[in-house]
Amino acid sequence: MNRTTTRGGIAANRTAGRGGARSIAWHAGSLLMLGVVLYPLVWLVGGSLKPSSEIVGSTDLIPASPVFDNYLSAAEGIARVPAWAFFVNSLIISTLTVVGVICSCSLAAYAFARLRFRGRGVMFVMMIATLLLPFHVMLIPQYIIFNNLGLVNTYVPLILPKFLAVDAFFVFLFVQFMRGIPSELDDAAKIDGAGHGRIFWNVLMPLARPAIITASIFAFIWSWNDFLGPLVYINTPGNYPLPLALRLYIDQEANSDYGAMIAMSLLSLVPVVLFFLAFQRYLVQGMATSGLKG
Amino acid sequence: MKHIKGRARLAAALCAGLLVTLAGCGVGGGGGEAATEKTKIRFSWWGNPERAELTQKAIDLFEKKNPGIEIQPDFAEFEAYWQKMATEMAGGGGPDVLQMDYSYLKQYASRNLILDLGGQASKGALTLTGFRQGLADTGKIDGKQVAVPWSGNTFAMLYRPDIFAEAKVDLPKKGWSWTEFHATIEKLSKAAVVKDMKGAGDYTGVYHLMDLWLRQQGKSFYTPDGKLGFGKEELRTWFTQTKQFRDDELLLSAQRAAQLDPKPALSADAVAMEPNWDNFIGRYVGEAPDAEFAIGPVPSLKPDTAGLYLKPSMLLSVSTRSQQPDAAAKLVNFMVSDPEAAKILGTNRGIPATEAALAALELNDVDQMIVDYEKSVADLMQPAPPPPPAGAGTIEQAMRDISEELNFKRLTVDQAVDRFFTEAEQAIAAGTD
Known about the structure:
The complex is a heterodimer of chains A (294) and B (433). By secondary structure, chain A is an all-alpha fold. Chain A folds into two domains: 2-48; 71-293, MetI-like fold (Orthogonal Bundle), CATH 1.10.3720. Helix content of chain A is 74%, strand content 0%. Chain A has 14 helices and no strands. In chain A, helix 11 runs antiparallel to helix 14 (258-293). The longest helix of chain A is centred in the N-terminal third of the chain and has 47 residues, at 2-48. Chain B folds into two domains: 37-152 and 311-378, Periplasmic binding protein-like II (D-Maltodextrin-Binding Protein, domain 2), CATH 3.40.190; 155-309 and 385-430, 3-Layer(aba) Sandwich (D-Maltodextrin-Binding Protein, domain 2), CATH 3.40.190. Chain B has helices at 2-35, 49-65, 78-90, 102-110, 118-123, 161-167, 178-191, 207-216, 232-240, 243-247, 254-260, 280-287, 325-337, 339-345, 355-360, 365-376, 392-407, 413-430; strands spanning 39-46, 69-76, 97-100, 140-141, 144-145, 148-153, 155-159, 273-277, 294-296, 311-318, 351-352. In chain B, the strands form three sheets. Chain B has a six-stranded mixed beta sheet. In chain B, helix 9 (232-240) crosses helix 18. The longest helix of chain B is centred in the first third of the chain and has 34 residues, at 2-35. Chain B is globular and about 70 Å long. In chain B, 46% of the residues are buried. At the A-B interface, helix 4, helix 6, helix 7, helix 10 and helix 12 of A face helix 1, helix 2, strand 2, helix 3 and helix 12 of B.
């Protein structure tokens, strides 16, 4: 008895030892991968603390003597527009985009997922087909429309389409999610006297929370990083969002202020990261629940 | 149940409210415009924040002098600028006054997007005299004044005199030959004053230098009707010039250049000479404050013909869609010829195109170097070639890429020549950049 215990103990120890080695290898491997993945970010942080002249050319990851001049010159802004204004502009556009996408795409999706109407199949295919159109193809026709409406140099061209459910990707995302919600729930609500508005708002929307979160995160990040749309539609430097402002630091003919650009781009990451951190646990949950549907 | 109903209504009201606010944003923008009765001119340019600051100061002065006109500035980085301009112009919008590049001039003129300013000049809103040598006609396409040159620069050999001195090599001098140029490269590369520093990069990728080389033979890169002005034989000679250097590794390797990018080789201690536009010196001095820089002439086949010309480095055009062409022309005139504006703008866009503007400037050491160089080669200057055809940007890039492939030894000279002609002919046929 005693012996067996000892033997068992040794065996357990052995497995623990093997497991330990495996665990160390696993962790070391993970850390190595992490290092590779995080390298650009570390470089970005290091670069933002280097004097502008050292950024390109010097291969040191960590600056010998960190300086904060880059952040100061970034904070000064560009051409009489303070840096915070670019953040505010970006925030306005991105927030309204998220609201627009959630309001309109979920409604459109409800129609495709729950209503039976003539031409539903064809319209659904057409909507999906718009996913295949590159943005550049629609750029000029869209510009013509907004130019004729006199809405160029406002945020309307950037935000209005989001309220009209033109983002087929998000509509599709909601449709797929809503199809996974049992229609018996609708029937039950119908028996209680609920109409479409009520079913949509009180039955489907609360259940579609993971889809809402997912769509919000993507819509936020995409509009935060959008460059071409604001480039074409916004003409007043004071109304530029961040991606436009960042490009202004680069110049082929004169000195490019790489330092200020890197500092600014690092700062511009902060809201996206915060937004992601706040919602990411819902995102994982959303993927898990939609994944279960198969 | 009632409670739920209330919430649904609230949500609906919220969504609707947002839409209204959104519409309000648009109306708000327009409302401001109606309140004032000033003539509004939208003015676009490309450049960095420093240029924006200087331009804004000049605009402030213009608005003070012309109280009836309000300028709405907007600017972007070069590539983004043309992307935006292309969309706006195609979409029926666009600015009133736009900064123009020589390589885009023909394309915009042929699509009838930029106005013939001859009418405004005869009305007195614009003067078209007083330009520096050879620049006056560079804004004309088929006799129409579709652009006004704002600044002009010429091609040069930028070099590091400190490196030359240490390597005990003669400086580039007026009338030096290509043979001397090659000998200089060899000496500098072998001396390698700084570790791995070469005499020069593979200059066969520099389309402007090939243009000068052709001009020295009485030819040109493009014919006036926008075709290639040379044949395969010339290009083969051009690419073969540096073959021995490539084989002996006496030129900056394409690999090293790629590693340094976006930092230019000359200010990164990687080469001692670089053929480029003389205004680039300003950037290099700024990037490498400890190094010495100087400007010398390009090598030539015959001492008295260097093929040099003043190229308009930037121009100003007025859109054909402008509702206020006279006010727009006034702004163009102010930016180009007004001495006070010139003082504010300095040499940020290059050496001013008009004598009056140049005379008003207080030049710093670097500017003085450029002006002195341009004066020293004044007797070699020829009229500028006609604006390059649409597609020239693509061809310039192809030249660079193919020369790089040669440097990597992925192509032989014959393959390089064939590939260039295929790509160049395609680009000219397509007629877009």
